[in-house]
Design goal:
heterodimer; A: mainly beta; six-stranded mixed β-sheet; four-stranded antiparallel β-sheet; 12 strands; B: mainly beta; seven-stranded mixed β-sheet
């Protein structure tokens, strides 16, 4: 079975400061990894994904994430946040063999303080 | 524009009534999903369908039902057997490795 742990439920950060949102996963098989963003009362939008190859993945809005297989982590980072980054962020995994289900973490609420 | 349309955006129902949430997609995706979102619990899978006329239960299927008569449509019925139906419901479809989400329906049972 797969599971995803987002270690921080809430992360406050000042505008223009760097941020890291942590994600760890467990799986007995190889997986694809994703970060999604959700604005209030809206659906989820894909930020970035890791399928294979380079462990550093760049996404939209200046976000990036690094896949660390030995630590089973996929932390999301941004060097300088903006007010508009205030949102809920979800880490997710999907198995590479059948790949039919996504397993989501419980989410991290990022609040950017002016 | 291609995408997933969920309707209505807000829905109020009396306790004990069945209610159906609509999900339509024009992306030509085979796989579709229904998730329930509650504060602090992330997204939990209710049902999914990989192809027309076929669907499987997810982790929290009790009190819900679905149908998949057309590729474009995957409606979710919240029955009176669902003990705590007030939540935000998200529909998604899948193309290869990526999931695409609708804007959600917020169901409130009073």
């Amino acid at each position: 079975a797969q599971s995803v742990t987002q270690l921080d439920s809430q992360v406050p950060v000042f505008e223009e400061a760097p941020v890291e949102l942590r994600c760890n996963y467990s799986s007995s098989v190889s997986v694809y990894l994703f970060w999604y963003v959700q604005y209030p009362n809206q659906g989820l939008q894909l930020l970035l994904k890791y399928l294979s190859g380079s462990t550093l993945v760049k996404g939209i809005n200046g976000f990036e994430a690094e896949f660390n297989k030995s630590q089973t982590s996929f932390h999301l980072r941004k060097p300088s946040v903006h007010i508009s980054d205030t949102a809920e962020y979800f880490c997710a995994v999907s198995r590479t063999n059948t790949g039919n289900q996504f397993y989501f973490g419980t989410g991290t609420s990022l609040t950017v303080i002016p | 524009d291609g995408g997933i349309t969920q309707s209505p955006k807000y829905l109020f129902r009396k306790e004990g009534q069945n209610v159906t949430l609509s999900c339509e997609q024009n992306l030509n995706h085979d796989a579709m999903y229904w998730y329930r979102q509650d504060p602090g619990q992330g997204l939990r899978l209710i049902y999914y369908s990989q192809i027309v006329n076929d669907f499987q239960k997810g982790d929290i299927a009790e009190g819900y039902s679905v149908s998949r008569e057309k590729k474009e449509s995957f409606p979710l019925t919240v029955t009176s057997a669902q003990k705590n139906p007030t939540a935000f419901y998200l529909c998604a479809s899948r193309r290869e490795t990526e999931a695409f989400f609708g804007q959600g329906t917020r169901l409130t049972v009073v």
